[in-house]
TrEMBL record:
Organism this protein belongs to: Triparma retinervis
GO biological process per UniProt: cytoplasmic translation
Gene Ontology MF term list: RNA binding; structural constituent of ribosome
Annotated PANTHER family: 60S RIBOSOMAL PROTEIN L22, FI24544P1-RELATED
Cellular component aspect of the GO annotation: ribonucleoprotein complex; ribosome
Family that this chain belongs to: Belongs to the eukaryotic ribosomal protein eL22 family.
Pfam family, one: Ribosomal_L22e
Keywords: Ribonucleoprotein, Ribosomal protein
Source organism superkingdom: Eukaryota
The protein's name: Large ribosomal subunit protein eL22
Regions annotated as coiled coil: none
Amino acid sequence: MPAKSKKSTKKVIVDCSIPVQDKVIDVTSFEKFLHDKIKVNGKCPAPAGAVTINREKTKLTIVFADENSSKRYIKYLTKKFLKKQQLKDYLRVIASSTNSYTLKYYKFEQGDEAEDEE
């Protein structure tokens, strides 16, 4: 009996919990942006069945039907969304594990500016 080939998928999770709690980002608009912008084999929007996007309160799970899809591409699109929303100067995308990203705020030092002006 020949071995059955199993279709492998790639799953990427984007955790937006911190900005969503502060009501800075709307997860539904981010989901729509990803759905409209993700390209698979040069086709935008992606063909049906090639990409699945699931939303769970503050997390988005992107499942690619093809294992060769890049996690880095999701980071690129997330940064593009932040720039479009004019939030790129305040939020950054950090890899929290091998298959997930987290959106976090930049840390700003406030005391240094007052000392430099004197």
